[in-house]
Design a protein that fits this description.
By secondary structure, the protein is mainly α. The protein has one domain: N-utilizing Substance Protein B Homolog, Chain A (Orthogonal Bundle), CATH 1.10.940.10. Helices cover 71% and strands 0% of the residues. The protein is globular, with a radius of gyration of 14 Å.
Length: 139
Amino acid sequence: MKRTETRELAFQLLYSTEIQKEMEDEQIELFIQENEIQNKSQAEYIKTIFEGIKKNKEEITNLIANNLKEKWSMERISKINLAILELAIFELIYSKLPYKVVINEAVELAKKYGDDSSKSFINGILASIVKEKNLNQEE
């Protein structure tokens, strides 16, 4: 399974935690069992994403909130978009993956799972964060 597919599974786990409004460690193991994830590196990647977002939730949420346009609030963001943003921001800031890859993958998730405006919304927030954090200097 490719990293893109593993990332999509991580997104699905994050989305389910947004719906349930809690991030409990048991959710990871249950998710891995239910999705029959046998590959250890995939399971580790999903655990790293989940635990990293859980640990850094406040900073990630603040980054999203600070990069919203006027008249937007966190409450207006769909759970799907929120899960995509959390995943992408974690990968940008903590995994230090190339920003172009992260944004592209996030936009693809938005196209697949979000509504018509999701891809533009996701792209705009992430581009703003890349600029704010000077992440585009890494090329």
